[in-house]
């Protein structure tokens, strides 16, 4: 509503407001620009005038507004009072209508109640007929349902004869129904589903639960056995493993289950349920399961046998094993079974028809009212039965996993697939897991498979290693016996290998050892580790979880350690099983003797590098932390060696230690055995020769065999490098002459006793500390000389006998000094001891003089 | 009290002696009576019934040409009677101390007719029957001390012609002799002379000595040139030794069970050591061991008895080396327990030194308090 003042004001400013920017009423009016324009365009009087105009306008507007307000308010008041009057009228008339209709409404409600009662009564009265009908049409479920619904009503109005009659009639019919159900249940071709349904119905009819569960169990087991047999029959034709994505055309041709009853429809259904059961499974697995019927044995078995079994177990548990609640709290019954029912229905495979229908559980408390004892009895029995069944199932699975001798020839993906199915089976059978720990059993089987796998893989390496060692020994022995026969010196074969160990001039012992270790490393790198890696890297869920993986690795770690233990034990066993050879067969036995030397060296080799290297390889491959690269990148050697993982370090150290230990043991065994064999040689010579009557050694002649240092081992092979040292060694002894050494016997005894008192105790059979040729040879020589000294004590000598000992001792000095560099004094003192003893045990001792002895020895060398 | 014979070694040319060592517990001193013996003695064994009688095995040099091994029974003729006799030891040469020591005479009673090879030892059965162990046979003799006669009643030849008999021992529980030869152990029934058991190639080395557990049937101990002592149960020979221990560094020449506590075993070796071993876990003492209540009761009683040890309850004895005695400076060839005092033993080494030792008192208490 535009006032005149406004219009005039507009008119006033219209002259100077050409654009809407400067029109005071326009939306685009801008104060600043307007003011600016005013300041620019107008003189002071003009501005004052504009101001006055504005003030006058404002006043005008104010006055206008006030008048307008007044007139409007007056209008409003009169309108409102009219409205109030009208509303009052409406209220009165409406209450009048309400009161007039009230009576009729009440009547209608009453009539309604009567009607529903009548309907119910009608139902009750018609019940016998209905039940009859149901009986005839074999819809027992409907019958039981109706009966159960009315049961409480009938119970409530027992006092009315009409109802009693109906109840009696119904009961009679229901007994028939129950019989029919029982017949159906006991029928030979009844499936688990039917049996379960029947049992649910019978339970609703308040049959005796104890007898019922027994029968149920019995029948179900029978049925399951049948199913099992049938499934096993069916899966014979199925492959153990079919690659899911590519094999789809092939799988279409695979024979579908022979029974028409559960043909495609059913299989599709079960396949679908497989998918739903394995809801947590990977998507691809789901896709596969949905799109294809199970094409391999285990999946088929799972779908047709395990599912049913599981269904049985779940329903049995629901019906009989849920703890009974006190009758006062019916709500508990629902919730008590509810927890399980929900969990079961999630997993539930063949649909709700396998459990007693929901209405049964709700309305009639279908749960059998078993006492605690009865429940425990039932649960033990069913557990037993289920365990039997499951163990059969697991046996079947187990039979699919074969372990050929050549473990590397098996296809890991087949095994993994089988186990994967098993794993999925356990995932989808929570009832079985709950009842008899199916998952534990399955995990046990899986672990067993793992350890079998590892054990066999390692066992193969074990075999290889051992056969390699044996073979090499045989080769070496051949080599040795050849060289021995060519030189015609028996004792040579003994010395040769030892010297070869160090210098390796003819046949490379070092090379052999190296070959063996390289072979071992390679066989791990190329065969064992990749094989296990392959097993691990497949899409198996049971290995996917961290515990599964950790378990596998732990398994492997333990087995690997056991592998070393076995190897070391086996070596020691082999070494100790070597029969001590009679001295006459020295050359033939050299093979077995040296083998322990080889094995000892191998052990040391292991301890220095091989073990650590292997553990490093493992750290790099199997035990690598984080997601494994499926492409098998472990073959790509990284340049820097990764350190051994912390969890392997302890193992690694202890294995290295064990290797070292057994290396020592083997070496000591070798030394002791060789020493003993040589000792016996010496002792035999002593006992066969009668030193009482032995002639003096002829000074000018060649010194013959009988009295020679038989096992001296020096032979003639070293004559080329005959030491010029000899004279010194003799001279060092002959600080006094040979004769005078034995002359003052009493004084000598005293001196030697004093010597013994202050010298260190000589330990003959001790751990060889110097792991080289000198150390080993010195160990043997110690044993030999001590044995000689001991055996001299047992004899009585004549003149010639004693002189023979003298020559022997000198001879030994000449030939043995090169091996006794470790402790030459000990060698001399042992030889001296033997001579002294012989002197004391000689009846008429006439020692040879030093020149005599020397000439004998020289003559021999010539 | 007679110690078992000790292996004497003597200078072949010198006159040999038998020393009767008498140990007086009160004054803790040993006195010696010397008897001269015509030849070098290799073994000596005293009669259980008559302390004056003993057999010696010796070698006689004939014409300076060859040796003949012999075994003879001797009777000691002493100047005076000892109140307490403690031992018979064989000895070689002694220094110039002979004027301090009483001397006696040996009376030759009888000799056994030894065949080829040397006689190793003579075992007394009773006063009328002895067994001689020779290189190639074991003979049973009936002897009549009064008449001075010996009659051969039976002999066992070595089963393996390659190995001589090294030693033999009587089974104290039955009429059985157990001998070692080469690497094998074999037992014979004395009346039927049939083998009772054989452990062929019992160890990879030669066997030197054998002893039979005096309290526990079927248990024997052997030692040999692989430094190890092995204990066998002859009922189950395929199972291998029931215990093996190696605390010596050279050949084991002698093993001896303690007659009273068969958990104690002495071994002597040519590494100059005598070792006292405890083998309680397989001894008759084992059944008392760790017998919870009884043991603790005993422990308390023991603690009550000697108050100063109240806070020092004894642990039960355990397997292992109890003590190594290293007083010898040469190979120790014989070791023997006293037949009277359960804690006393003597060892004899090649240099003619005889050392008498006792079981350490700690071990003694352990055994006593845990019974």
Automatic annotation (TrEMBL), chain A:
Coiled coil: none
GO cellular component: cytosol; EARP complex; GARP complex; membrane
Primary localisation category: Golgi
Keywords annotated in UniProt: Golgi apparatus, Lipid transport, Protein transport, Transport
GO biological process: endocytic recycling; Golgi organization; Golgi vesicle transport; lipid transport; protein transport; retrograde transport, endosome to Golgi
Residue numbers spanned by region Disordered: 245-288, 327-356, 702-730
Compositional bias (Low complexity): 269-280
Protein localization: Golgi apparatus, trans-Golgi network
Pfam families assigned: Sec5 (PF15469)
Bias (Gly residues) ranges: 703-718
Signal peptide: none
Residue ranges constituting the Exocyst complex component EXOC2/Sec5 N-terminal domain according to the UniProt record: 36-387
Biological role stated in the UniProt entry: Acts as component of the GARP complex that is involved in retrograde transport from early and late endosomes to the trans-Golgi network (TGN).
Subunit structure: Component of the Golgi-associated retrograde protein (GARP) complex.
Assigned protein family: Belongs to the VPS51 family.
Alphabetical list of PANTHER family matching this protein: VACUOLAR PROTEIN SORTING-ASSOCIATED PROTEIN 51 HOMOLOG (PTHR15954)
Name of the protein this chain belongs to: Vacuolar protein sorting-associated protein 51 homolog
Organism: Linnemannia exigua
Automatic annotation (TrEMBL), chain B:
Biological process terms in GO annotation: protein ubiquitination
Top-level division of the source organism's lineage: Eukaryota
Domain EIPR1-like beta-propeller: 13-276
WD repeats: 200-235
PROSITE patterns: WD_REPEATS_1, WD_REPEATS_2
Keywords: Repeat, WD repeat
Region (Disordered): 290-318
UniProt record similarity statement: Belongs to the WD repeat EIPR1 family.
Protein name: Protein tssc1
Lineage, broadest ranks: Eukaryota, Fungi, Fungi incertae sedis, Mucoromycota, Mortierellomycotina
Gene: TSSC1
